[in-house]
Amino acid sequence: MEQVPILSVNPILGPIIIGTVLSGVLYGSAIVQVYLYYQRFPADDWKIKSLVAFEISIQTIHLAFLTVFPTPTVIAIILCSPIAVAVQGYFVLRVYRLSEQPLLLIIGGVLVISKCALHLVFSIAAYIVRDAAPLVRNWGWSITGFLVLSIACDTLIATALSHHLRLRKTGFNRTSRIIDLIIVYTLATGLINSTTELAEAICFWTMDDNYVWLGLYVVESGLYTNSLLAALNSRTLLNRLWNCEVPLEFGLSPKGSETARPNYWDQKSPQPMLITITHETVSSQADGAPFSPVPDR
After folding, report:
1. How many C-beta atoms lie closer than 10 Å to residue 11's C-beta?
2. Which of 81, 69, 192, 97 is nearest to 142 (CA)?
3. Which of 137, 153, 34 is nearest to 92 (CA)?
4. Would you call the peptide bond into 70 cis, given omega within 30 degrees of 0 as the criterion?
5. Which of 120, 139, 232, 289 is the most buried (most CB within 10 A)?
6. What is the per-residue pLDDT across 192-227, written as a single tens digit (0 to 9) for each?
7. Among residues 90, 88, 93, 109, which one has the least CA distance to residue 50?
8. Contact criterion met (CB below 8 Å) for 16 and 69
9. pTM of the entire structure?
10. Which residue, 144, 137, 154, 155, is CA-closest to 201?
11. If DSSP codes are grouped into helix, strand and coil, which group holds residue 292?
12. Within 10 A of 87 (CB to CB), how many other CB atoms are there?
């Protein structure tokens, strides 16, 4: 009697389980951030609110499919594409509005659309093939392509935002420090996504006998959602800094720069000088008395 072939899922099962656990942690963080966002920014534009709702909805479906193995995992892989593309598209548009340079919009748009196309090619191939070994062997070029494009897009976003924010710095202490803080946030979120994708690419290129890259791949969508929500919710802290509710000393400015001056909360810094201006008027009397200055306070 002919034996029915059995699909060996052992090489895939471990990375998928670890990736699912990490995705669950990131999903919990995203839920908290979504709640804070809708509580703190009810007056935001409906487009941004719709983007947040879209991200958390697709992320919920993505995590639900990850918990059932193996067939729904392919659907979860397909859902990674719209999650990442929506966030990258938002940040590319943000770069354009800050820089007002159409070239950056064109380059970023081409990278996002090209990545989306290759991502969809890989997702459709994964849905049709359903076997990891021939999928990687025959469609590995698409995996390499969208990983390289994604790293390039995230690097462009982080670099362009940081550069144009630095150009907006003024000689005012508070404004410069807030811009420094925004630059740090931008670099941090961009580096997290780029580093994860770079690790994913290295694992894919160097580890032919395992699927560690696939575990990082399913975690990637959660990082994109959290980076978007972190960028939106960080406005609360920035508004508090602008209104001087908390000290502005964060150690973000280089020593000796214009933004590294002591703040008003430092008791050792020089206190402001009080200057009183007195205006004197001169009055005369009709009986020929001498002039006498009368201070007018």
Report:
1. 14
2. 81
3. 153
4. yes
5. 232
6. 888 888 898 998 888 877 788 888 888 988 999 998
7. 90
8. yes
9. 0.71
10. 144
11. strand
12. 26
